[in-house]
Amino acid sequence: MILENSTVLITGGSSGLGLELTNRLVQQKNKVLICGRSLVKLEQTKKEIPEIHFFQCDVSVKKECQNLVEWISINHPECNILVNNAAITHVANFYDDDKILDKAVMELNINLLAPITLSKLLIPILTKNSNASIINITSGLVFVPRVDYPFYNATKAALHSFTQVLRIQLSKLPISVVEVMFPAVDTPWHNGNSPKIAISPEKAIDEMLIKLKKGELEIKIGKVKILRMLTRLAPSFAFKKLNQLTNIN
Q: How far apart are CA 69 and CA 77, in angstroms?
């Protein structure tokens, strides 16, 4: 994949891994479009990285996704890469939390339905341009879940499955479908409680960009490859070990 002189939409591009990727792609002479729910964060990112373009929207709402795509079609019709990065999680107990069903809907909408919706809406624009790609960001947790994430693991596993199918169904179109599986990364996403095994966002994005340049379609960052092997050889051990390393009792 050529990540120079492209126009890239990154959802959730104003914080964490999305922000690191935004900064790096701008440095590589790409036009970067970001979206997010927080206007404050978007404006702050614009101050830090003046080259970006942003659009405020909540990707969990279909109408706002449509508004985003309309903005792109009018102002940035050369957009050729979509990075479905936005995601949320709730650390919660399914039985004890009275708001757990609302949290489930929120995670499903942002982590799964938003990437599906944006992929569908943007394919007509992406495929008109060269070097077209959809990049879905998932996690090593698609293979083995963290027990304090009642929904996040499931949403990322579902996105993993959808990505595999989409890659085959779009194989006759001039568009590549890529999945990037991250390990725990030390970002504000963890609310100051990053697991001991977390790697830096700089290291994570470095490896992602190297593997994208090589043309890999299913990219496992850090120790995700080892985790995948463990789940095949000793699934019970992998489950126990991961939940020990992520500071879960």
A: 10
Q: How far apart are CA 87 and CA 71, in angstroms?
A: 22
* Stretch 206-211: mean pLDDT: 96
How many Å apart are CA 84 and CA 123, to the nearest integer?
13
Closest to 201 in 3D by CA, of 18, 28, 26, 17: 17
Helix (H, G, I), strand (E, B) or coil at 198: coil
pLDDT grade for 107, boundaries at 50, 70 and 90: very high
> What six digits make up the tokens of 109?
């909408």
Q: Which residues are catalytic?
A: 152
Q: Which helix (H) or strand (E) holds 166?
A: helix 152-169
Determine which helix (DSSP H) or strand (DSSP E) holds 101, and give its type and residue range. Answer: helix 100-107
Cβ neighbours for 204, distance < 8 A, ≥ 6 positions apart: 17, 20, 182, 183, 185, 221, 222
The token duo for 245 is: 């390393």
